[in-house]
Write a structure and sequence with these properties.
Blueprint: H1 2-20, H2 33-55, E1 58-60, E2 66-68, H3 79-103, H4 110-124, E3 130-132, E4 138-140
Helix pairs in contact: 1-4, 2-3, 3-4
Length: about 140
């Protein structure tokens, strides 16, 4: 538990360090109409995805997306629906990173914003959820 806390703290500090090199502060909470719509979509979808995070079927990737990590944890009859949820979530996550970069007038920051959000998603994941480490291996939180 202590090692996980240190790891999460290190990730947050790393994200802050990466942004220290950028002129001005990055507004991760940019509130444009597009960002608001994307966040609302993602919040509504989160309730549908939670059972799949809980079973380990869906995991958080190191690049700020999600993936159907263990298809066997989903009945065959439900896989198409889960794949559709994952695709919709990833589409909105990609758009969110792009919109936040645009809202900050720095589209070139999109990859850094993605990395910071990836760290945030993993840090805020519930115990028992799966996430991808920097080297690509999967870890249960």
């Amino acid at each position: 538990m202590y090692k996980q806390l240190i790891r999460c703290t290190a990730l947050v500090l790393l994200g802050l360090f990466l942004w220290a090199g950028h002129a001005g502060a990055v507004d991760f909470e940019a509130n444009t109409p597009a960002v608001t719509r994307l966040k609302q979509n993602m919040q509504q979808r989160h309730n549908q995805l939670t059972p799949f995070y809980d079973t380990g079927a869906v995991g958080l990737t190191r690049d700020g997306l999600i993936v159907l990590r263990d298809a066997n944890a989903v009945p065959l009859s439900g896989r198409q629906a889960v794949n559709a949820l994952v695709a919709a979530e990833n589409q909105d996550r990609n758009a969110l990173y792009r919109e936040i970069a645009l809202a900050n007038n720095h589209p070139e920051w999109e990859n850094d914003i993605r990395s910071t959000f990836a760290q945030r998603w993993i840090a805020s994941a519930r115990s028992g959820w799966w996430y991808q480490q920097g080297n690509g291996t999967w870890q249960k939180k």
